[in-house]
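We emphasize that the prediction below concerns an isolated chain of 163 residues; any contacts that depend on oligomerization or on bound cofactors are therefore not represented. The input was used exactly as deposited, without trimming of termini.
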Amino acid sequence: MRGMLGIVGSVLLLMACNGGDGGGSGSAAAPASCLSADCGSKQRLVDIPGAENLFFTDAGRLFVTGNDNIYELLSTSGGYVAQPRSAGTAGGSGFGGIAQRGNVLYVNVFDVGGLWAAELNDAPECSLIHAMGLASPNGLSDGPDGELYVVNGPLIAVAGLPD
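Result of the prediction step, given as a token string:
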């Protein structure tokens, strides 16, 4: 079943890159969602040391976690800047997963096992709100029940994942 989904996904991506007709004519302009190098080129916007996770808020703001901080990517007249959104951590312990609940942004920190948060105002400032006592929390998501879910790694799959 997973193999069939992978094939269908690949075909859809190829169709998107050649104009969507599946015939390979390439005469139509590629849509913005195309993932092929033939459809566009990579452009470095900012440097974020140890960039790990990215998250778009419900309002379309982009946050990226790095070794020692969480950054908001902001557009300026000269391009883009990575604006730090916390006091940071000494020694770069690794900001990890990002989630949003209501008007609050949550971030977990890998080495110290803490949960940080900030209200999503004009200039959010994330700070530690809870020492979770976990060894290496990296993943973070909000669930359909409104709760936050944390992955404390490493997660090792020995025999593969079930269908």
